[in-house]
Amino acid sequence: MSAETLLQKVKRYHSESFECIKKALEIDENQNGKKEDALMWYDKGISMLEKGINVPKMGASLDDKTKIIRIQTKMMKNLQMAKERQDCLNAKSSTSESVLSKPTRPHSGPPAAKEPKPGPSSTSIRSKPSSGVLIPKSTATSRARSNIASGKPAVSASRTSNRTPNRPSSAESKINHSQIPESTSKSRLRSKQFKSVSSEMANKIIDAALIEKSVKFDDIAGQEAAKEALKEIVIYPVLRPDLFMGLRSPAKGLLLFGPPGNGKTLLAKAVAGEADATFFNISAATLTSKWVGEGEKMVKALFAVAREVQPSIVFIDEIDSLLRARQENDSDAARKIQTEFFLQFDGVGTDPNDRILVMGATNRPQELDDAALRRFPKRIYVRLPDAQTREHLFKMLLSKLENSLSPADIHKLSKMCDNYSFSDLTDLAKDAAMGPIRELPRDVMMTIEASKMRKINLNDFTKSLHKIRPSVDVSLLRTYEQWNNKHGDTSSL
């Protein structure tokens, strides 16, 4: 069997199991759904997952083997989640049948007053399970921890244990949110109860920060040093967690700095698309509030939610707006938000085993507080594209439109765009693409077919170079170079 067939086989099992578990989750979370149908779909999904996990990797190329390991790692997490949900549903069904089958004693007197229906905070079953029903401790703990099965615990964990279970460690498996639709993932998170954090604030974080995953590293031209650093911190520890332990444990803070328009935010989106982790996109507006004391509570809620769904990535764009160097004239609210952020990020009460990566992006690294720099041991300079990267970017942009540029023309064009950022080059290509349209009279433009349009040529780009100028000042580049030599990663120099 070829390596390509092995990879396709694993992908097929992964896709089929995802559809089965998705249907099971929809029925399971629907109070009117038939639990027998949910169990049937769980069985099918678990069967597909086990087949995909057992596909051998022998004979596959190194690249395909890496992809197979990544998919099978996700499948193992989904398998454990599906089995926990299945055990929970079985235990709930058995408990309900036992309670319903218990004989009732006829009443000779007046009818007793009806018991009030349980409210939103009460459990769906108040009575203790009968002695003939055994609920595994791990299942009860899991239900008390994640409030699965229609959003309410079927039986409280205190029924089976005298102590309250602690928060799960990072070694315990989590629900793989990257393989569950976003709406389902958000609704499941909203049903959770977070320790010492109000559900209202947690829901604000979930609604504002949780984003979809759509960008890959292959979609970004250049920035190889930044990509390798991100893979080392995020991707590789997921593929080989046994290697990244102790002194090799990945850093918990990563700072991307450099001139604007060079893909810092895009790199963060690529991490969200490549990593098997929940991604939170945070801005100053997400955490600040006009009410006194709510800002630091939102910071605490952010890290509480991130710990619950770890491994997770917290990305803060324009991080200098939150972690600017502290001064005497700072407002009390801003100072409290900074202090709470530092405590939650790396304070006394944090768990060193938490798998939370905090990524920051900024155009002004020199304005960050010293305490913030200490918490971002990895500082990557996202540079302007060099000539080779500019050439590659032009090829990517022009591949979407008809053009007559030869490789020699593209090489010449890349030499003419020194000090242009990625954003400037994109704007330049967009303006050049308008060249053939600008030459057409208005009546012809309204009737001409798109296939008969003139192709884009080098002359269009030459004209656009007089309109689209570099947006980054040379003196600003010297500032970034000096800061990088003093505080940043200089291994690629």
From TrEMBL:
Stretch list, region Disordered: 82-191
Known EC number: 5.6.1.1
Keyword terms: ATP-binding, Isomerase, Membrane, Microtubule, Nucleotide-binding
Keyword Hydrolase in annotation: no
Pfam families in the cross-refs: AAA, Vps4_C
Keyword hit for ATP-binding: yes
Catalytic activity: n ATP + n H2O + a microtubule = n ADP + n phosphate + (n+1) alpha/beta tubulin heterodimers
Residues of the MIT domain: 10-89
Gene3D superfamilies assigned: 1.10.8.60, P-loop containing nucleotide triphosphate hydrolases, Phosphotransferase system, lactose/cellobiose-type IIA subunit
Comp. bias regions, Low complexity: 120-131
Domain of life according to the entry: Eukaryota
Domain AAA+ ATPase: start-end pairs: 250-386
Residue spans of biased composition, Polar residues class: 91-101, 138-149, 157-186
SMART domains in the cross-refs: AAA (SM00382), MIT (SM00745)
Family classification: Belongs to the AAA ATPase family.
Name of this chain's protein: microtubule-severing ATPase
